[in-house]
Design a protein that fits this description.
14 helices, 330 residues, 3-stranded antiparallel sheet, DNA polymerase, domain 1, 6 strands, hpI Integrase, Chain A, mainly alpha, single chain, 11% strand
Amino acid sequence: MATITRKQTKDIIKWQARIRLSNHSPITKTFNKKSHAMAWARETEIQIEKGLLTTGYDKAEETLGEVLKRYLSEVTPNKKGHKVEAIRLRKLMRDPIAATKFGYLKPSHLIKYRNKRLKEVSGSTVKKELSLISDVFETAIKEWDMPINGNPIRQITKPKENKARDRRLENDEEERLLLSCSQSKNPYLLPLVIVAIETAMRRGELLGLERKYLNINNRTAYLPMTKNGDSRTVPLSTRAIATLNKIPIHISGKVFPLSETALRGLWNRACRRTGIIDLHLHDLRHEGTSRLFELGLNIMEVSTITGHKDLKMLKRYTHLKAEDLALKLG
């Protein structure tokens, strides 16, 4: 906040504007008129807030790339989604913006980066990248005490989220998909796809599922850690139980002993064999969740099974087939 002080030397009266900065010497400037000092102080504070003014405080000499590298080393490993975040950080570190001095990054730099990336990837992806950069700034300010003046990400408009996917299995796609999966040399692909449809589990939950957490008698699968950080017990359908009972037991204790990379390759090859277009593995979660609603479960019951905390997000999964609803109407 600025203060205006009257300064008098003999018969000469001047006005000094003083702007205090945290952890740095204040900025001062002297004027002949008080109104000029007040106007300068207001404009300067606005410029500092927007990150458009170099104050001497915001002179962290490390490049953005160097700060991203530190964040990757110190912060990212402690996050549940560290693998995905690490990939995103390394990609940012290869971008030309990474060569910019961290303390000199302005909204204009990030607007240019945002607009360039929007020509290359989806708005949702760009929004995630900007949010990550924002997290890096907040960590630098709060945890590392770096000499920077605010978070410039706050001063720019983030892209809108893309429309959520509502892809479901159509016509004979499920039959064709399962046939293709059965032709795979890997014995875990077919049961994983069936269990994914039956339980609406996420990919990470399926790959992390351990046999010791299966309770065949109670027909449940316990997930000690999920995407939202909570544990969850998933009920298993008759079809899911029958499928799980046939899966070869692996020494690792994992029900589906596959890496994300291996699963991605198996899935892509299975889709290519069938000729099915634009079907993602995550779409099976949407399919499974929609089927739970079609069985007549209410939104709270479905959220208990799927692990959705935000019921607004869950509503997008209720894309029920119009022909099925028509049958219910009589």
